Amino acid sequence: MNQLQQLKQVRNELTRFMITYKFGLDEMNTKLNILKEEFQHIHSYNPIEHIKSRIKSPESILKKVYRKNLDISMDAIRENIKDIVGIRIVCSFISDIYKVSEMIQNQQDITVVEVKDYIKHPKSNGYKSLHLILSIPVFMSDRTEQVYIEVQIRSVAMDFWASLEHKIYYKYNGEVPQQLIMELTEAANVANKLDSKMEKLNNEVNNIKSKAAENEDIHFLQLNEEDKVHLPLNFLQSFLDREK
Fold first, then answer.
1. pTM of the model
2. Which residues are marked as active site?
3. What is the pLDDT of residues 105-161, one digit of tens each?
4. Helix, strand or coil for residue 95?
5. Which residue of 70, 90, 101, 225 sits 20 to 30 Å from the alpha carbon of 238, by its own alpha carbon?
């Protein structure tokens, strides 16, 4: 095999490698969009505020290979770097985070590789988020590839804080003054209190709505009783038969 053929082979392997991850991202985004639209059209609210996704560039992948001191091979990268595809899901409330996580993990063709709960166990700097490492199948023309995907699920407050922290660390190239670190930690505590407050308010609203719905049902039944509206027995029986 001459040098030109070798270069073509490497190019084809790299192209297949990267496009497989793109297909994995497309597959996962489709699943999430289905869940999002289902809640919009069927349920009374949508727990997903918005979704962001990205694929690491080849340069970023190589940098991580060097940092982790890995062999420069497709197999080594595939098995050791599990965040080439990243998806961030932002939810309204903390309870929604776990609800969305459960729905994702219950998908039959998704394999849960790892779960890191930084909400129940925050990082020392105050960072909170729920991280899932998932594996999903991508069906190619001649093979089936398993693609790792990192999914981060967090609240609006958590996402705002994490974005701010990232910008500050990027600006200072990782060398952030101690005073700013202390203020960031304090801001994380404020964001956590806000999340707790909003969760409490959401529960109170849901309780009020639940009681209102019960009262509507009782009122409806009372109206039917007062109006002496009686449905024929054979009509009711036909619905029961359908449920069998």
1. 0.80
2. 150
3. 999 999 999 999 999 999 988 899 999 999 999 998 888 999 999 999 999 999 999
4. helix
5. 225
